[in-house]
Amino acid sequence: MELLFYKDAYLKSCHATITYAQDGIIRLDKTIFYPTGGGQPGDRGWIETETGDRVEIIEARKGENHEDIILVLKENVPLPAVGSSITAELDWEYRYGHMKIHSCLHLLCASVVGDVTGGQISANKGRLDFNLPDTQIDKESLEASINRLIAEDHPITQDWISDQELDTNPTLVRTMSVKPPRGSGKIRLVRIGETVDLQPCGGTHVKSTGEIGPVRIGKIENKGKQNRRINLTFAD
Ligand SMILES: [Zn+2]
Q1: Which residues partner with 15 through β-bridges?
Q2: How high is the pLDDT of residue 27?
Q3: Hey, what domains does the chain have and what are their CATH numbers?
């Protein structure tokens, strides 16, 4: 299955062929739908058949492996036939919200010294948990520094790198805010600006930080001994 969102997160629709249809789920030969995972809800949207029938997709999920994505159809609709051509369309507002919040969590991660232990993304808010024993976080200065990084409009770019290339570039690993998983062959690196953030990530991001718009830091909660949960939302 071709995962189009890796190449272009802004693709809102595509033509595809149905390769599987059973028990309320379908698979396509290529997909713009990002699956549920890593604290981010899967994409929603629609497919339109050649005869003009429109079927609602309520969630994209990971299938049997990382290149297999299944689309869950709204209940009680007739399934389109395997081999038929369709047009897939994203619920773009929903996905774009995830892209902005997800990108902003990179900025949060880059602005707080401490290991990330968890996170959650929705279309208008997000949060990260940090292993921060006995650290006081200055909410106002954190909010100001994230909003400054947004206003500076840093480009967000991506590169694919092999385990081998990683081994020959030890400085790269040192500059990463999150250590890459090993043994998967190819690792996708997401970079913000020259030095704002660099980390392995398979998510969907906006093209530059300015697109995120102003944000507000919400509650900073204590979740257990070493977990500090930082919430953020759009300011508007
Ligand atoms: Zn990311």
Answers
A1: 87
A2: 97
A3: 2-90 (2.40.30.130), 95-234 (3.30.980.10)
